[in-house]
Write a structure and sequence with these properties.
The complex is a heterodimer of chains A (about 110) and B (about 900). By secondary structure, chain A is mainly alpha-helical. In chain A, about 55% of the residues lie in helices and about 10% in strands.
């Protein structure tokens, strides 16, 4: 398997995908914190983003300066083709494992 | 209306973040930080939001994201931390290589730093030890010693001793005083266990109160600290003493016999006092009971200043308020002062005693804060000389490094990188230098311990010591390396690569200035060493008013009792013995086992009052004293057996005759003193007839003048002094045999008067030797630096010398030319150093009443000495350069 994808990396990738046009640092952080109910530091998030970018799963560009954030530009992210492939691969692996599971994975009520 | 300023992210965190990120692109990260901060503000308090901001900043700083961005921002496209690290390695490698290539340069630098580092280290240890005196006492900050200063009539005294009653009176009048204790020093004792006949001389014996252990933190190993000294006739002894007399068995309850008279019970054994205590006692005798010392301690009159009094205040008590009430206290017990008289009590903190107290009646000779300052200055000077060597050599050597600097710059080195590189080299050299210094200090410490009479030790097990050493090395390396690294990194690549590497005139000026500085220090130290030596020699050869040579002293003659008279007669019969005398008093300060005592006298026919009382030292001597010591009788006669009335006669020294105002014909006049011994009784005076006047003789250190003194016939048997002719060995043997017969079991100890006399000036002699050593170090380091410097400058002028030779210059004229430059520098140094040394020397000599003449000769000698040494150092390289073949030197590029 080319380009191993960690759990947090997967989470970040999917969040970027779900945020669409508006995927930048703080938005990704808040979305993950909200959905996954875990607190993450800015350093950890950007490290992961950096790694994903180096693996060419995402690409980034700087937006236009606005009145917010002291006029500082935001860096937006977007999935690359490789990124989508990686997500597919990991999903396929999961599905396969789900199907193969000998223990009943349905949660008893 | 007050408007609150808008809340902003914490400024410090913001700045720190920007500073850390340097020029990496972090606009988006910074924006994220700020956005989060303002979002957080809506959810939480400002303080928490700021705290969060800090957390995020820190998380980013340690994050992979930022590391990558910083790497990408580096100038070089391939720059990364690993590249920076390999640059560091390269600097190290180049630094080591250039050291190996220029071995003499490396040796001079490292050697100089090692020597000065070792000297500095030893001085530091000495100072550290001096500063820890008495700090082992848990209550040190609450303990004070009472000092007494008074003047009445012509008598003035400032002393560390007070009347016996001061302690109890203080305790009674001042509730803020928790406890007091006293010491009485009655000199040495001959001590033996009750069941033995062999006595040993004990030097450190003090009489003290039972509160001793309450005030001073001394561990009691056996016995009860609070009760030990409450009983009469009890003694507490140190562990070492206990082992000496009783071996491994418990000393408690055993009996010691002091001077074959006092039988004392051992009630406690205490841990030996540390060397850093301002007093030392191996035996403490209780002041309770009815032995003479104890009776003196119970005196109720405010006179006889023989007790060292210590007070311990209650915690939190205000010592200033207490001191303010002391004048009234003194008036209450001592009566009011009249006319020009005054009396004053003061409290000196325990921790100040060792370095700040030099009074009469000290228990031991103390250290001096002046010497601390003096030695630290010397240490700094020596270190500076070594640093200057480093600066001079690195800049002089710069031609060799110039090309390297040029190439590095062309290849993209920034100035900061180059400064870093050269600083690193300086760190390497200092690091090696200090490591060698540590070893050198280890080798030198025994010598200095001996010289300073202090057991110094390298604290090799303490991590703090290494931290200190490391810090010092770092400071020195920056100090020494800062100028060269800026100088070297400042070369313009264009000039350098074109081959213009001649040193600028300014650099030469600076080097000259630094050399001058080095030699100013050297000359100063040499003049200091010469002066101290001269003063010590002066003191020892001064006409003293008695003859100190060819006099043997038998110590502890009281062990002979009651046979001392018989012993004396027998000794007088020995061949080679001219005369002998028995007396406890010799003209050597602290040399006697009998503490000196003052007594007040007045002239017969006048009423005793504070105006005409003269405090004179009363020395009881026998009839042969004046002849044996060869004192000069200037009027009347000395004591004689032929005049039985001499038992109430006195021989005065000239000073006291003048003080009493006895006029031109003093013989036959009478002086009076109170009777009643320890409790003065002025109504029934005792009269003494003046039978002779001796010329003044020095009986204290020459730091002091000559005090009034009277010789009385009496029995005090501290020494048998023997004036002899020729070789004393036979006489000593004979005397020892006689001693063994008359005082079996008592130690036979002898000495010579001139030796005892010389011991008075031990500290000055030590200072002379120390100064000599430091001066030698300073000169050596400076000269080694000069040696290396000449090597470089003569190398620089190779071509010039070649051309001069071709044009007909002689070797001699070229040598002269090259050393002439340094001669100029040394002449300048001399001009600067001489006045400085003059001031320093004057200041030191101030403390002596009798000063040696320090003529211009000393200065001239110091100047010429330095000049000759410097010539010899520069001569080698000058001569080599001058005698080189001009063909070769012109051809070199």
């Amino acid at each position: 398997m080319k380009g191993y994808l960690g759990e947090f990396e997967e989470l970040v990738l999917l969040t970027i995908a779900s945020l669409g046009e508006n995927a930048y640092g703080v938005a990704i952080k808040e979305d993950i914190e909200l959905r996954a109910d875990r607190s993450i530091s800015l350093g950890a998030l950007h490290s992961t983003i950096t790694r994903l970018e180096e693996k060419k799963f995402i690409r980034s560009w700087l937006g236009e300066p606005t009145q917010e954030r002291g006029g500082r530009r935001k860096r937006f992210f977007e999935l690359t083709h490789q990124g989508k492939v990686a997500l597919h691969e990991i999903k396929a692996l999961r599905d396969e494992l789900w199907k193969l599971s000998k223990t009943t994975l349905t949660l008893a009520k | 209306m007050k408007t609150t300023p808008p809340v902003k992210p914490p400024r410090l965190a913001d700045r720190f973040f920007k500073w850390y990120c340097n020029n990496a692109s972090i606009e988006d990260l910074h924006g994220d930080l700020e956005e989060l901060f303002f979002k957080n503000l809506e959810k939480m308090s400002v303080r928490r939001a700021k705290w969060r901001y800090w957390q995020h900043v820190l998380s980013l700083i340690f994050s992979y994201a930022l590391r990558r961005r910083k790497e990408r921002s580096a100038v070089h496209p391939f720059a990364s931390s690993s590249v920076q690290f390999s640059m560091l390695l390269s600097y190290l490698k180049i630094g080591c290589r250039s050291l190996v290539r220029n071995k003499s340069y490396a040796i001079v630098n490292i050697g100089g730093l090692a020597i000065s580092g070792a000297v500095g280290l030893i001085i530091l240890l000495f100072i550290a030890q001096e500063l820890t005196y008495d700090r082992h006492n848990a209550n040190a900050d609450r303990i004070y010693r009472l000092h007494f200063e008074h003047r009445y009539g012509e008598n003035y005294a400032h002393m560390a001793a007070t009347p016996a009653i001061a302690a109890s009176a203080l305790q009674q009048d001042f509730p803020e005083i928790e406890s007091t204790t006293r010491f009485l020093d009655y000199g040495t004792y001959l001590v033996r266990p009750a069941d033995s006949n062999e006595s040993i001389k004990e030097e450190h014996v003090l009489w003290t109160d039972s509160t001793f252990f309450k005030i001073f933190s001394v561990n009691v190993l056996e016995g009860n600290a609070t009760k030990a000294l409450t009983h009469p006739y009890s003694v507490a002894i140190s562990k070492q003493t206990a082992r000496k007399y009783f071996g491994e068995t418990s000393a408690l309850g055993k009996s010691l016999v002091l001077d074959s008279r006092y039988h004392a019970n051992v009630t406690a054994v205490f841990e030996d006092l540390p060397s850093t205590s301002h007093f030392h006692a191996d035996i403490l005798i209780s002041l309770a009971g009815d032995w003479p010392a104890a009776r003196e301690a119970q005196a109720t009159v405010f006179s006889n200043n023989n007790f060292n009094t210590y007070v311990m205040l209650r915690p939190g008590a205000d010592v200033q308020a207490l001191e303010a009430r002391l004048p009234r206290f003194l008036e209450k017990y001592n009566g009011p002062s009249k006319g020009g008289d005054f009396a004053r009590l003061e409290l000196m903190p325990l921790l100040d005693i060792h370095l700040h107290s030099q009074l009469n009646g000290e228990l031991e000779a103390n250290g001096s804060i002046t010497y601390i300052y003096l030695f630290s200055t010397v240490a700094v000077f020596v270190l500076i000389i070594a640093c200057i060597n480093f600066m001079n050599l690195s800049t002089a050597q710069s031609t060799q490094r110039a090309r390297e600097v040029g190439i590095r710059k062309v290849l993209g080195s920034q100035r900061a990188n180059l400064v870093g590189q050269f600083l690193l080299e300086s760190v390497i050299i200092t690091g090696v230098g200090f490591t060698v210094a540590l070893g050198l200090a280890g080798l030198l410490i025994p010598i200095f311990s001996n010289l300073l009479q202090k057991p110094l030790q390298l604290p090799l097990t303490e991590p703090g010591f290494y931290a200190l050493l490391f810090g010092a090395a770092l400071i020195v390396s920056v100090l020494a390396g800062a100028y060269p690294s800026f100088f070297l990194s400042g070369f313009k690549p264009v000039n350098v690569l074109k081959g213009q590497t001649t040193l600028s005139g300014r650099g030469g000026m600076l080097r000259g200035g630094l050399v001058v500085f080095q030699f100013v220090i050297s000359i100063f130290l040499i003049v200091g060493a010469f002066t101290v030596t001269k003063q010590v020699a002066y003191i020892q050869n001064k006409k003293l008013g008695f003859e100190k040579d060819q006099v043997l002293l038998i110590k502890d003659a009281y062990a002979l009792r009651p046979n001392s008279g018989v012993f004396k007669t027998e000794v007088e019969k020995m061949p080679g013995v001219r005369s002998a005398t028995v007396s406890g008093f010799i003209p050597v300060d602290r040399g006697s086992d009998f503490p000196r005592r003052d007594r007040s006298f007045w002239r017969e026919g006048t009423q005793a009052s504070s105006d005409n009382l003269v405090n004179i030292q009363t020395w009881s001597v026998d009839v042969d004293y004046i002849t044996t010591l060869n004192m000069n009788v200037i009027a009347g006669r000395g004591f004689s057996k032929e005049f039985p009335s001499d038992s109430i006669a006195v021989v005065l020294n000239k000073t006291s005759a003048d003080r009493f105002g006895l006029g031109p014909d003093p013989i036959g006049k009478k002086i009076a003193t109170f009777s009643g011994g320890r409790v003065p009784d002025f109504d029934h005076p005792i009269f003494y007839t003046v039978v002779g006047i001796v010329d003044d003789f020095h009986f204290s250190s020459l730091k002091e003048g000559i005090a009034p003194l009277g010789l009385f016939l009496g029995k005090s048997d501290g020494f048998v002094s023997v004036r002899f002719d020729g070789d004393p060995r036979q006489i000593i043997e004979g005397m020892e045999a006689t001693w063994k017969r008359m005082a079996p079991g008592q130690p036979f100890q002898y000495s010579f008067l001139d030796y005892e006399f010389g011991r008075m000036y031990e500290s000055e002699q030590r200072l002379a030797r120390m100064f000599g050593i430091f001066a030698a170090f300073a000169v050596i380091i400076a000269c080694v630096g000069l040696f290396a410097l000449t090597a470089y400058t003569s190398q620089q002028r190779t071509k010039e010398i070649g051309i001069r030779k071709v044009l007909g210059a002689s070797v001699a004229s070229i040598v002269f030319l090259l050393s002439g430059e340094f001669t100029k520098l040394i002449v300048i140094s001399f001009v600067v150093a001489a006045p400085l040394a003059w001031v320093g020397v004057r200041w030191w000599l101030e403390s002596f009443t009798y000063k040696a003449e320090v003529g211009l000769m000393v200065y001239a000698a110091a100047g010429i000495l330095v000049l000759v040494i410097a010539w010899l150092t520069t001569w080698y390289h000058s001569y080599r350069a001058a005698s080189a073949d001009p063909v070769k030197s012109i051809r070199t590029e």
